Structures are given as C-alpha cells and as structure tokens.
From TrEMBL:
Highest taxon listed in the record's lineage: Eukaryota
Function comment: Cadherins are calcium-dependent cell adhesion proteins.
GO cellular component, one term: cell surface
Topological type in the membrane: Single-pass type I membrane protein
Biological processes, Gene Ontology terms: adherens junction organization; calcium-dependent cell-cell adhesion via plasma membrane cell adhesion molecules; cell migration; cell morphogenesis; cell-cell adhesion mediated by cadherin; cell-cell junction assembly; homophilic cell adhesion via plasma membrane adhesion molecules
Name by which UniProt lists this protein: CAD15 protein
Alphabetical list of PANTHER family matching this protein: CADHERIN-15, CADHERIN-23
SUPFAM superfamilies assigned to the protein according to its UniProt record, in alphabetical order: Cadherin-like
GO molecular function: beta-catenin binding; cadherin binding; calcium ion binding
Alphabetic keyword roster: Calcium, Cell adhesion, Cell membrane, Cleavage on pair of basic residues, Glycoprotein, Membrane, Metal-binding, Repeat, Transmembrane, Transmembrane helix
Keyword field contains Calcium: yes
Residue ranges, annotated region (Disordered): 527-549, 567-628
Domain Cadherin positions: 12-118, 119-226, 236-341, 342-449
Amino acid sequence: HQHEGPRRVKRAWVIPPISVSENHKRIPHLLVQIKSDKQQPGGVIYSIKGPGVDEEPLGIFSIDKFSGKVFLNAMLDREENDRFRLKAFALDLGGTTLEDPTDLEIIVVDQNDNRPLFRQDVFTGHVVEGAEPGTCVMTADATDADDPDTDNAVLRYSILEQGNAGMFSINATTGEICTARPGLDRETVGVYNLTVQAADMSGDGLTTTATAVIYLEDINDNPPEFTKEEFSMEVEEQVTGVDVGKVFVHDKDLAGSPNWLAKFTILEGDPEGAFAIRTDPYTNDGVLSVAKPLDHEVRDRFELTVSVQNEQGLEPGAPPSPRALATVRVRVKDVNEPPVFRENPRRVSLLEGAPPGTPVTTFTATDPDTRQLQTLTYALLYDPAGWLQLDPHSGTISTKRELLHPSAYLQGGWYIALVLARDDAEPPLSATGTLSIEILEVNDHPPTLQPTAGVVCGRPGRGGNLLLGATDEDRPPHGAPIHFQLSPQHPQLARNWSITRFNGEGLDGVGGLMDGGGSLLTPCPRCSRSDPRGAGRAAPPHPRVPPTALVGLGAARARGRRRALRKGLLQSSRDDMRDNILNYDEQGGGEEDQLFSPRAKPPLRRDAPLSSATPPAPRKLPSSPSDIEDFINEGLEVADSDPSVPPYDTALIYDYEGSGSVASPLSSIVSSLTDEDQDYDYLSEWGPRFRRLADLYG
C-alpha cells in the first residue's frame, strides 16, 4: 500500500457557550443565532434538542428553524439548573443532514437571590459557671444557596444581642461562640440568650438570624445556710420514731444537685443519742426526730446545736457560710404513762399447806408520772385456783385458801398469778405483773409400807424372808429415796434379823423404815417364847410400838424342835409337829425356835390333864392384816393362862396344824420350794397390800 498524504479535516460548525442571568424577566429573550457553513439556495432548516427543549424542564428554550435564532422563554433559577447542554442540527429542505450536530451550552449566571440559612433556629450550649475567657461553647453556622464561587455565598457572623454584660463573642468567619469575660455566675444569671446573624456578600449582602441559648452549669460555690439562728419545737414523752420538727436551710446552688443537697449533724446537747436528724430530699430541710423515748420527769427540755453542709464538697475558693450552725430548742411534753412493775415477774416461795391468811408478798408498781398526783389500785387479773386475796390499795397478797400440793394448777411446783395495777388518770392506764409462787414441799406424809403386815415362814436350818416396799406422797427431798433400817432403839434385833436392799423400790428383809424427814417405824410383835433357862417363868414384857409397823419373823434353826421330840412331847408323826412362838426382840431365842404358823389346829397333848384332854376349838383366822397383832396376843394369853401346860423349859403348844396335813415345812420365800408345794392362796384374801406377796408365792 502506498502511504496516503495528509487529508484536510472538515471543520465542524462550533457555537461558543452562551451566558444568561438567572431571574431574567424579559421573556422571550434572544440568546444566540446559529448558522451553518453550508448555506443552500433553498435554505437550511435548524433545530435544537435536549433538557429545556424536548426534555424536562420542557419549553424553556426554542429556535427559529429558518433563522437559527435561539430564545429564552422562561426565567431561570441557577439554584435549580446552573447550565443546560443542548444539541443543534442543520438540515436541508429535504431533511438531509447538512452538518454533524453541534453542542450548544447555556450557562446560568448567579445572582444574589438567596439569603444565608442557619442550620437550626435555636442553638443550645453549656458552660460551667466561672469559666475562663476564651472557653468555647458552641458553633452557630449557616449556609447560602448561591454560587459558592461568588460573594453571593461568602458569609460573615455577628452577635446582634446578648444583654449588657457582653460575656460572649462569636467568630465572624466560623460562627464559633466563646466566653469573652470572666465572672459567669449561675446563681446570678443562669441562662444567656444570644441573637446571632449571618450575612452573605462578606457581610454586606443578604442576612439572617438565629438564637443561641447558653446554660451555665452549676458548681458548688455556695454553702447551705440556715434561714435563722434558732428553732423551737416540742414533742411528747415516751414516743420513738416521730418527727419533732424541721430546720430550714437555703442553698443558692442548683436545686436537686449534690451541690445543693444538705447534710445535718447534731453537734451538742444530745449525749445519749435521743434525737436523729435527716434531710428532706424534696425541700432540703432538716427533719428532727426522736430516736429514743424521752422522759419528761427526767429531762423536760433539750438545747441542740446543729450544723449543715453539702453532700458535695465546696469548690476551692468558695466563701464559707456565715450560718452553718443553728440552735434547736426542744420541749418535752408530759403525758400520762402506765404504771411499771419494777420486778416482773415477782418470785416468792410458800410452804405447801399454808393456812388461809398467810402473807405471800406485797407486789406493787410505781407511777412514772412523778409530777402528776395519781393513785394506783391493784386487782387480781388471773388466779386460776382462787387461792389468793389482794388488798387493792397496798398490793399486799395473802392466801385465801389452803395451798394444796399436788394440784393441777401447779406447773413444776410453781403457781402463776397475774396482778393488774391501774392509775386514776383520764383515761386510766394499767400494767400487768406476773407473780410466781414456788410451793415448797413439806414432809407431811409418812412413808407407807406395802404390805403393812406379813408372815415369815421357814424350814429348820434355813431362814425366812419377806419383801418390803414403801411409798411416800411427798416430793423430794422429803420423799424418795426411802431408807429401811432395823429399829435403833432395839439393837438386839441385829443378832437374828438383817435387812438388805433388794432393788430400787423395796428391800429384802424386815425392819423399820425412815424417810427423808426422819419418821421411824419399827415392828415389835408380842408373843410367847421357849426359855431353856428354867421352867415356870413368864416371858418379860416386850416394848410396844405403833401397830402400823410390819411384823416380821425369821426362821430359826431346828435345834429346839429336835429337843422337844426327844422329850416325847409331840406325836411321832411328822404332820403332828407343833410350833414354838418366836420372840425376835430378845437375844438368844432364835436358835431354840421352830416354825411359826397361825393356821394350825391344836392336837391332843400327852402332858395335859384329863380335864383338858380336848383342847378348845381352833380360833378363826384374821380377815385383814390389821388383826394379826390381836390374833397373836390372844393366842399368847391362852397359852399363859392354861394351868395344865408343862414348865417353860419344855415345848409350849401354841397352835396345831392338824394331822395328815399335806403341807411340808416352808422353804424360804425368795428361794425355790422343796418337797411338796405349799398353798399360799389365802394371802389374796388379806387385801390389796398383800397382793404382791400373793402374786409371788400364791
């Protein structure tokens, strides 16, 4: 290929930008006339297209298609469209394009038709009181819709109004507001309202205004102060937790803030802490109240020194308060108070069985109202057993009936009564006192033996036993434990008798018994005996004791029985054996004695005269234990008065068991039986006191 030389470029038709001022009011307005370089004899047809012609906004621009003149048909607003870019066309009459389309740019020239606008109508800022000059608070800025490249949008700021003090200034270019002078005091002026202005054209054009509100923040530069130096109030005695009154204070700092909130302290006049003071959170006043009951009779007035200060500490350099202290005078009002039992409960002791009219105690109360003339009276409020009587004026209490023990009204040996004390005020007041009376135990019940009478039987060579028990209605120390002993008045008993403890409730053996009070009971039966020392001698008299003593007999050895058999005084039959009487309170008699039984029938005696060949009929057995002594004494008299009896050194027939008896000699009660069993069913007929013995051996 051959290199082609440079070709001539066809120059397109060019239309320079067209400027038109916004807000042009002469409509239509010729903007420009365009022409094509290819003018045809028949003419050229011109047209334009683009925004403002056939695109939104429609109809702003138009063109004369034959002359090429472009017209403005409406006012322009640069703030809406600052320029329009159109296309211009040139056609022949047949509609053929003569030239390529060219650009037509219409520039809208700005006019100062927009005022500055602040971003908000009211600007708000905060600064602490006492701030140093130059402390910036906030910025009040504005905007301008005009062309920012022209003076139409160049703004300047100023403060039109802020009061006479001139405490603030504004940066003319930025609109920043700062403090201008010292001495900002919230308590003097708490809020500043400034009128600020913005002007375009560098301050010479259009203007607008806004409000700047500046709040001064509080600091604790003012101490609280009492509104006066002295306060007076009064309160009734004997109350707690009630408010007495208020002390009033004033603080210039911001209400509700820690700089304003007061704190009160009682410095003097209340060493016992009878009062308390707190702060009313709504009014900031001090509320004085009673912490401990007051007694008008002890102290009827108080003079308190109270101080006040803030919860928050004062700022350095803040002046002290001239009224940080106040005097509070409190008068204690006298009111009627109830009586008081100083010793409550009152505990006294009284012997049981105390007769009616026995003084118990004087149980009185005191009236705290010493400055009022009042009289106290007394009454029994609670006396469940009706044992007491009370003098209504003196308060002296005595017995009305005998105090019985035991009683359902006693609690652990104590009798409880309530005493009412009442004054004569209007209305009257009363108090209740508790009287606790300890009923002391008295040794007024002797111990009771069970059984009160008994029989001791034994076989030759072995002793007999009797199980004793006793009860005492007295309580300790005059009741249990019960001590058994042989009578110390008859020491000879210890030769043939012994008494030992069987268990915790009774003793195995016989003898007297002694309770804690020292009552002594000793058994002392009276009966005949055999005396080996001589014949025809009567037994010496025996000491007598109360018949309530238990009669106990021990089994003796069988030596006396063998001696009698050798003399032939008894029949040879084993069943015809006769008994001797045991006199257990005389020394040496036990070894000569045989078994004792009140049930025997008398046999025929070989040594008796013919006139007494037939012995009297057997006597009837006793029906109760209390008849045993009489039964024994009667048998003793029969034996002593019988003229046909042999001398006393021989066996004396007391009674006879009968011939052919099935009974064998008795073994010890507490030991196992030998030979044949003995029938003791008759013990159950002797009453309840022999029931235990009947259960053991019956």
